[in-house]
Amino acid sequence: MSSNDVRAPVVVGVSRSEAARAAVDWAADAAARHGRPLCLVHGQEWPAGAAPKDRHDDPGQIWAAHFRATGQSLLDDLREATAARTPGLRLSTRLLDGRPASVLREAAEEASLLVVGVHHVSGPGEVFTSGGAGPALVGHPPCPVALVPAATSGFDPGGPVMVGVDGSAASAPAVSYAFDEAAAWEADLLAVQVRRPRYGDWPEDLEESALDISEALAGWREKYPQVLVRQEVAVGSPAVKLAEAAADARCLVVGSRGVGGFRGMVLGSTSRSLSHMAPGPLVVVPRTATGPQ
After folding, report:
1. What is the DSSP letter of 6?
2. Which of 3, 22, 31, 190 would give a disulfide with 160, using CB separation of 3.0 to 4.6 Å?
3. Distance between CA atoms of residues 84 and 24, nearest Å
4. What is 1-152's CATH superfamily?
5. Which CATH number is 154-293 given?
């Protein structure tokens, strides 16, 4: 989580899609596990001229009242279902005017985590037409952004938390988030670094990457001794290889910006590619995110 203030909510974008409902469930579990409130946010983009302001008896005003009531009804239904599914969770709702991506970006300013539903893909490496606000939000809010697919095939809720490590400063907040998540869920942690093929897979290169991972994890191993850690080095396209390695993961965690230097792993572009191909929940942690104390 990005904020150390336990009052900072987990914010989840709400719509009538299957992906959004999966996102609400995932967000509710995350909020409950971390002891945070959950805020359900629905952005309504009004058609031009749909709600005239000058006459209360104007048919447009009547239409607008129904339009707003429909949005509030969606929020109320999901709040009721979430309360029944996750008893004791502190819940709130917000019905806001504007484009969903803009509304969620603003709501994320005070959030510990922003959760958005995305369309699922059938396998790693396949690009899909996402629709929705999810991929457009990656890298913009100050808090981590979790992209949750509608379908759950292809990932294991009981699997390890996986984190991409590239040796840059940008991946440090992602490592922090991943350890905290693994500890919260009593899950293992899998750390993976990907080297591009043009740099070869010579033994000394692979050893260098393994050392990079060990150095990136060193302080966190001591802070979270209960977390069982595994590390791997892969060779290939970072996004594709991370997606493949995350097939059985509870979630995949990456940084939103990174300069991989000679390793060529730029997590800014990698995280955006993964927003279209990750097989399960993807958590993108910005460089400015603060980890748990």
Report:
1. T
2. 190
3. 13
4. HUPs (3.40.50.620)
5. 3.40.50.12370
**pLDDT, tens only, 63-114:** 778 888 999 999 999 999 999 999 999 999 999 988 888 899 999 999 999 9
Compute φ and ψ for 39, nearest 5 degrees. Answer: -115, 120
Residue-by-residue DSSP string for 136-182 = HHTT-SSS-EEEEES--TTS-TTS-EEEE--SSTTHHHHHHHHHHHH
Note the Cα 269 to chain centre separation in Å. 16
Q: Which residues contact 71 (CB under 8 A, 6 or more apart)?
A: 42, 44, 95
Looking at the chain, the domain(s) classified CATH 3.40.50.620 span 1-152
Task: Pull the structure tokens for residue 51.
Answer: 């709600």
Q: How do residues 223-258 score in pLDDT, each as one tens digit?
A: 999 999 999 998 888 899 999 999 989 999 998 764
CATH 3.40.50.12370 in the chain, residue ranges: 154-293
Torsion of CA 126, 262, 222, 245, to 10 degrees: 20
DSSP-derived secondary structure letter, 124: T
